[in-house]
Design goal:
By secondary structure, this protein is α/β, with parallel strands linked by helices. It has two domains: 369 residues, Aldolase class I (TIM Barrel, Alpha-Beta Barrel); 89 residues, no CATH class. It is built from 17 helices and 21 strands. The strands form five sheets. The chain has a seven-stranded antiparallel β-sheet. Strands 7-6-11-10-9-8 form a six-stranded parallel β-sheet. Strands 18-14-15-21 form a four-stranded mixed β-sheet. The protein starts with 11 loop residues before the first helix and ends with a helix.
């Protein structure tokens, strides 16, 4: 799927603007664009950055062929010189981005494109749709995995996703955030994310009895026998039949029942009763898996009620991020080069949240002595932070809220991905991204990652950047 030619996957206004730049001889003007988002889904305390690998592959393969040029020419609105430019297009910009799996926060740039304005404009939509989707699903998955409190979570949403790309890349994003596996076999084939699953109710219904179905399955999969026990009556038939299969089929083979799954009913009550029945039958190691329209809130409540669950299968509410299905990332101009000097640009809005932060920027994450994340600080790109000196943190909207911190260390979050169009980043494996996410997620304070009323993690501006922003606001608001 990654090898499809997606050159024309762009909003039409990107082409009309690019044509305008070309006609006005602005195509070589250097610009800086920031990708950032304004609010965290589900009123959460954090989001998770995902999708960078797919952005990289898109930029590497961005070419306009004969078919695309003929299509654009048929519109009769594009300059012939512009069409020739597209025919010979080569991506030459710089790209900086955070590592996939990084916890991210509103208003800070998570990816920056610096290069000819015509190039920056053409890649806007593909960058946004890729990062918006995978970051949304990675964020939802992180919330669900955290709510599960160490219990396994499997992504079960392939058939409910918004198309096959959403299923594939949604499963990828969920895996980054700690989901154990997926129901989607293609994702295992493509990304080596474990594909997991056993049977549906139709399998059991196709036999003359539930016991006969269980018996056939146990003979077929004696080493991996996990039985769906809620087709007819969970406590009176399903679990007793599963126990009989252990005694009459698996035990004589020297095997053990691996687990049971419930997909309906009062999951708290049923799993408590199921655990008791399985333990009394000498099956304390038999695992209990549940599914059925789960999300982080239902999982939290089930655990609170004492449900005996080892694994959660989470489908539509994960892969569609049903509770808030838009991430809201934007692509905004922050600087233009004039006479070889970058001139900061700002968009001002009566809505404070929509006023952009100008300039070519870096983001530093501050960690305390115990490697816990304290705050992020946006700076101008060439600013450096001296870790040997106290640093003054302040709320950029309420500057009287401030504090000085000592004994800290910082890490720049935006790292080079492309330099003058050349990939300079070693793309990590998916398991490396997953491990990096786990480490960074563990650096967040518990108050930031709680589901309800999380603590606000501060994204500050350096004093130099804050002063620049205020000067530009005053300049344009006269």
């Amino acid at each position: 799927m990654d090898n499809r030619k997606l050159t024309m996957l762009m909003d039409f206004y990107e082409l009309t603007m690019a044509n305008g730049y070309f006609v006005d001889h602005k195509q070589n003007e250097i610009a800086v664009f920031d990708v950032f988002f304004r609010s965290i889904p589900d009123k959460g305390g954090y989001a998770i950055f995902a999708g960078l690998e797919q952005v990289i592959k898109y930029l590497q393969n961005l070419k306009f062929g004969k078919e695309e040029i003929e299509f654009l020419a048929s519109k009769h609105i594009f300059d012939q010189g512009f069409l020739t430019y597209l025919e010979n297009f080569i991506f030459t910009s710089d790209v900086y981005a955070m590592r996939e799996g990084t916890p991210i926060f509103p208003h800070e740039p998570i990816l920056v494109v610096k290069g000819p304005i015509i190039e920056c404009q053409l890649v806007e939509t593909m960058i946004l749709l890729t990062l918006n989707h995978q970051s949304l699903i990675a964020t939802k998955a992180a919330r669900i995995v955290h709510a599960a409190k160490g219990r396994s979570v499997i992504e079960f949403g392939a058939r409910r996703a918004h198309g096959y790309d959403a299923s594939i890349y949604g499963a990828r994003a969920a895996y980054i955030s700690g989901v154990l596996g997926t129901s989607n076999t293609y994702v295992d084939f493509k990304y080596k994310i474990p594909a997991l699953g056993t049977m549906a109710h139709s399998y059991i219904q196709s036999y003359e009895s539930e016991y006969a179905a269980f018996k056939a399955y146990a003979h077929t999969y004696p080493d991996n026998c996990l039985l769906l026990v809620d087709t007819y009556n969970t406590l009176k038939q399903g679990i007793p039949n599963a126990i009989k299969i252990q005694k009459e089929v698996l035990e004589p083979m020297g095997k053990k029942l691996k687990g049971i799954r419930l997909d309906s009913g009062d999951l708290a009550y049923l799993t408590i009763q199921a655990r008791k029945m399985l333990d009394e039958a000498g099956l304390p190691d038999c695992k209990i898996t549940v599914s059925n329209s789960l999300d982080e809130y239902l999982i939290k409540e089930l655990i609170h009620q004492g449900a005996q669950i080892d694994t959660f299968g989470v489908g539509e509410r994960l892969v569609t991020a049903r509770s808030e299905a838009v991430f809201g990332g934007v692509f905004k101009l922050s600087a233009i080069e004039v006479n070889q000097q970058l001139v900061p640009k700002i968009k001002i809005s009566e809505n404070v949240q929509k006023t952009t932060t100008p300039g070519f920027k870096q983001v530093y994450r501050f960690y305390d002595e115990n490697c816990m994340a304290e705050a992020d600080v946006m700076t101008l790109f060439d600013e450096e932070i001296d870790e040997t000196k106290p640093y003054h943190l302040f709320d950029p909207n309420f500057i009287w809220k401030s504090k000085e911190i000592e004994k800290y260390h910082v890490k720049p979050l935006l790292i080079p991905i492309f330099q003058k169009g050349k990939l300079v980043y070693d793309i990590p494996t998916l398991d490396e991204i997953r491990a990096y996410h786990k480490k960074e997620f563990e650096s967040l304070w518990p108050a930031v990652i709680r589901l309800e009323n999380p603590h606000e993690y501060y994204v500050d501006l350096s004093e130099k950047l804050w002063a620049l922003k205020q000067d530009l606001i005053k300049k344009y608001k006269r």
